[in-house]
Description:
globular
Amino acid sequence: MSCDSAPQRRVFDSAARRRAWVEHCGRGHDLKYRLAFVVNGECVVHYDNEAGKGDQRHAGSRERAYRFESIEKLLADFERDIARWRDENPNS
């Protein structure tokens, strides 16, 4: 199944700061995803699996490989990073 014809799920929180996009497609784990936490128009935490680069975690300007295990763990890791960012940036 190609990404274009696959079912998609988009989730936005009420403050439009947390965005998640997941779609089934032909990758190693059969998911294409992008999760972003945006504050004042700036993406401060971002997880994705861009074609050719694989699964990645971005925090500010840092980028590193991410080991995808499950959608549940991905979402938990994303929420954990948001909580950490909020702890480190209480005035934002």
